[in-house]
Amino acid sequence: MNNQKKVAIFASGAGSNAKKIIEHFKNSSSVKIALIVCNKPGAGVLNIAGENNIPTLLIEKEQFFRGNAYTDELKKLEIDFIVLAGFLWKIPVALIKAFPKQIINIHPALLPKYGGKGMYGHFVHEAVINNKEPESGISIHFVDELYDHGQIIFQATCEVLPTDTPDSLAERIHGLEHKHYPAVIEKLLS
Question: Is the pLDDT of residue 1 over 50?
């Protein structure tokens, strides 16, 4: 009997976090990355899925927000858990209701600071530097109906250097994401 937890990764871009998560669970007996869900045809994450023989689901805005948010497709594939890894659409209530406390996200700042609509990628790092924050970091949290609002599961910090640019800060934040996200997922699912 296979008791592997089936995980769907939702991503919109190059997929560097998705890649680290896939590598982390490649030989896991307890967790299987069963699906990559993407809202951008041609996104790098789709190539990563292909290289790892992971099925993909390309989603369309209208059905995601006004339809059933693809919950039927996810249930049919027996998905147990959803990981957002650079997924830029807000998660509809239908999906949150279908997967209560089973959707997590990673944010490139120390929530509750620098979260909310429009706060992603370099916008976050620019705001942190402009406000002369002494540190930044990552927040891994459950997803609820509001952007970057759900219960925080884990945070890690790094220093913001006086010489930092949004790119140099982003590089250190990516390091934190790649180090901690797969481990936190593993802990939640074990």
Answer: no
